[in-house]
Structures are given as structure tokens and as C-alpha cells.
Amino acid sequence: MPKKVNQQFLINEVRKKGVTARKARKAVQTVFEAWKDAIAHWEDVETPCGILKVVATNGKKRYEHRELNNVNTKKKWVEYVAYPGRHMVVKLRPDPKLVVKWWPSLLDLTPPPPPPQPQLPPQLPPPPETTEERECRELANALLPKRILVDSRVMARLQEAVHTHPRGGEMVISVRPGALRRRLRHFRGREWQFDSVEELAQQISEHTWI
After folding, report:
1. Do residues 179 and 163 make contact, with C-beta atoms less than 8 angstroms apart?
2. How far is the C-alpha of 46 from the C-alpha of 58, rounded, in Å?
3. pLDDT (tens digit, 9 = 90+) per residue, 118-146?
4. pTM for this entry
5. Closest-CA residue to 204 (of 185, 184, 189)
6. C-beta neighbour count of 139 within 10 angstroms
7. How far, in Å, CA of 158 to CA of 139, rounded?
8. What gap in Å lies between CA 45 and CA 31, rounded to an integer?
9. Are 169 and 112 in contact (CB under 8 A)?
């Protein structure tokens, strides 16, 4: 740490944390403006080096003549200077405890760690495929084009078609167990082919008698 700390030093330290020069300068100037406003209202200001306090100085009001010299032109002149006597000044009172407490984290702009993610319950593996379900999937693969992947969503759509009324509506048809396999076997025995899942599902709904 240098002996003299000014705004430029603080700006450079803030920039080391990955902040742009413009934002670093604006942040430091904002802090200094807040200090000036507090001092103007006779408030104490805590800094990394101590506390800035507004105190009154003792002195006698007087007027003196001062001889001044311009170092460039070597010209000398005399000015009449007035000393106000007792006046208010800003003084720094060093506080070692304050330095230890605040200085390590003054320029720490590291973002806080993200909040912990909620623990989700472990996902259970899907139940094993039964013999009937495996046969229905193989039959559907044989009835549909090879470009169509017969997965769980396709099988769920075909199973839904078993209980769907062939003429539409919201009425649910009650069927005997194994109806999907029987209808797919019937289509396979006749060597039928279907171009889409919806076409196969419609035929499954139509064959309610199987």
C-alpha cells in the first residue's frame, strides 16, 4: 500500500477486480461525494485509515502582509492576507481497529456465491417393460414406416386410441384387457401398413369389436 492514497489509486484498485475504468471512476467519485455531503452536515466519516471529523481550531483573527514571489517571472509583490481565527477544519483521527475491520474488504468486489440449488428428489427408473408391452411395440414397429421411432409417447397414443370413440366425442370406451395387442395382431396378420401414428390410432379406434 502506498504512503499516499488518492482517487486514482482507488480507481486502479477497483479496476483490478475486473471493473471497467468508467465504472470504477464513477464508483470512487460517488463514495467521495457521499463523504463530502456527510462532512458538510458535520457527520463523522469512517475511512480505511480512520475517522474524518469536523473540528474547530483555536486562533485569533488577524491581518498580515505577505511578500510573494513568482518563480517564473521573478516578480515580487505584497498581498494583504486575512486570517479568520477560529474556524472549522476536517481532521483525520486514525483508528487501528477500523483499519483492521474495514480495509481487507473495502475493495472486495467479488460477487457473492449463488444460492444453493434446491435438492430435487431422485428420479425413479421407469418400470420394466412387460411381455405384452414389448410385443405391442414390436407390432407397431412393423406396421409403421421405419422413419417413425416407436417410443413411449407413440405407445401411449395408441393405448389412448383403444379407449377413444371412433366417431369422436368425450365418451370413453371400456374394453377388455389386451385389446391393443389383439388389434395390432389383426392388422399385422392382414399385412396392413400405415403412414403415420394418427392413421394407425384411427384404425385402432375403429376396430372396437376386436
Report:
1. no
2. 25
3. 888 888 887 888 999 999 999 999 999 98
4. 0.41
5. 184
6. 20
7. 12
8. 11
9. no
